[in-house]
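Observation: inputs received (chain + fe (ii) ion).
Thought: call the complex predictor directly.
Action: predict_structure
Action Input:
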Amino acid sequence: MRECPATDTVRALDDEAQLSYLPISRLERQPPQTAEIVVADMQGIDEEGFARFNDWRFSPRGLVAPLILIVDDDSRKRVLRRGLNEGANLLKRPLEKTTLKPLIVQLHTANLARARKIQPDARDSHYAAFPEQAEGLKAGNAVLDDIFNAWSANEAFDADSIAERSAAIIECVGQTGLSDWVTAVRQHHDSTYQHCLLVTGTLLSIGHHLKMRRSDLGRLAVGGLLHDIGKADIPLDILDKPSRLSEHELIVMRSHPLAGVERLAGKRGATPEIIMLVRDHHEFLDGSGYPNRLKGDEISDFVRLLTIADIYSALMERRAYKPPMRADDAIGLMASMREQIDQALLAATVPVLRDVRT
Ligand SMILES: [Fe+2]
Ligand SMILES: [Fe+2]
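Observation:
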C-alpha cells in the first residue's frame, strides 16, 4: 500500500475536518457517506482499481463529499481519459504540504458555509407572524433539527418520542385546518423543512378527515417528518438548487431513499414500518418509480398515502424558482398520473386537498 507523503498534514486535520484519507487499494464497495472530504491517491493504480473507483464515484450511491485526487503524469492522463476529474480537485505530485492543506481548509470552509444554518431570528418572526401555528411549527422544527442536524450515527431512534413531540402539529392541523397550515409553512426559510412540514400537515389533515385514531395520527406524523431523512446526506447545493438538476445531480438526489435506509439500518427503534416509508415513498404502482421499481401490491397503503401527500406537497411548495401550484391544478395533475398513484385513495383525499386556498 502506498503512503501519501502528506499524511501527517491530513491526519492533523482529522478531528476538525473529519477527513477520510483512502488509498485506492483500500476502497470499500460503498463510498463513505459520512465523509466530509475525500482524498484519493491515484498514482500507480491498476485497471481494476480504476474500474472500481469509477463505480464508486458514479454509482447511484456514489460519493457526495468533495474529492481531492492526487496524481502523477501517468495517472493524470488516465484520470482525464475516464472523466474522473469532473467535479474533483486534482493535485499533482510532487505533493507539497503547502498545496494540500490550503485546499483542505478551503473545502472545509465551503462545507461549513453550506451546512444547514438554523436561524433563530427568522424562526421567531415566523412564529410571531403565525401565532395559531406557532406551537406546531416549533414542534416540527425541533424534530427536524434532530433529524437533519443533530442525530448522530450511534444514537438510538425513538419513533414514540417523535410521535409524542408531534402532538402540537396534530392539534394545530386538527383545529385550524390544512389551508392555514400550508400558508404558514410556505413562509419557512428552509426548503426541506418546508417540504417535510407540508407532507406532515397534509397527512394529518387527511387522518383527521378520515377520523383516524390518535395512535395512527402519531404514525402519520412520524412518517411525514421522517420520510426524507436520507436528504441529510444530500449536499445542500443540490437540495436547494434553484434550477433543473444535471443528470449526475439527479442520481445523487435519487439516492435519498436508500441513504435514509442506511441511516436507520440496525438502529434501535427504527421500526420496519418507518424503514418501509423511507425506502418506498418514490415508488409508483406501475413500476416506474425508484429505488426498487416496486409494483402494485408490493406498495403498502400507508406508502401510497405518503406518496400522494409527498407529490401534493412538492407541487404546493413555494420555491425561489416556482410559485406554488393551485390546489385544483395539483389535484388535476395527480389525477393524470393514472397508473402511477392510487386513484381511489386520491379521490378519498380530495375533499382535504382541494380545501387549500392559494
Ligand atoms: Fe423523498
Ligand atoms: Fe418528500
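Thought: report the result.
Final Answer: Residues 167-185 form the longest helix (19 residues). The radius of gyration is 23 Å.
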